[in-house]
Amino acid sequence: MLAQWTNDHWRASSHRVVVPSAGEAARSRYSLPFFVTPDVGTVISAHRSLVPVGEQPHYPTITSEEYFKNRIEALEIQKKAPRAIGGV
After folding, report:
1. How many CB atoms lie within 10 A of CB 46?
2. Span 69-84, average pLDDT
3. CA 5 to CA 62: how far, in whole Å?
4. How much is the CA Rg of the chain, to the nearest whole Å?
């Protein structure tokens, strides 16, 4: 979604955990996830200042609801796709 709003100038960061060294793992660590979701009717389109003159945005204008429906459908398709065994 961030890529769509910024016309690929910014991308969302990966959500991952880095395995610490033994010394770092001995200390306490805390994590606080924070997720923001716009209202379903929020329009997602590239900001005009990030689309070069004479060019079209990289993504079509859609609502937040449409965006999340598309993402869920894409994940369902991925789950149903056969996976190669042993990298074949």
Report:
1. 21
2. 84
3. 11
4. 19
Residue 86 has pLDDT above 70, yes or no: no
Half-sphere exposure of 67 (CA within 13 A, CB side): 20
Task: Report the alpha-carbon distance of residue 56 to residue 50 in Å, rounded.
Answer: 10
pLDDT of residue 67: 94
Angstrom distance (rounded) from CA 10 to CA 53:
19
What is d(CA 70, CA 59) in angstroms, rounded to the nearest whole number? 13
Q: Where are the beta strands (DSSP E) in the chain?
A: 43-44, 62-63
Eight-state DSSP code of residue 38: -
Q: Are the CB atoms for 43 and 4 separated by under 8 Å? A: no
**Given a cut of 60, is residue 88 above it in pLDDT?**
no
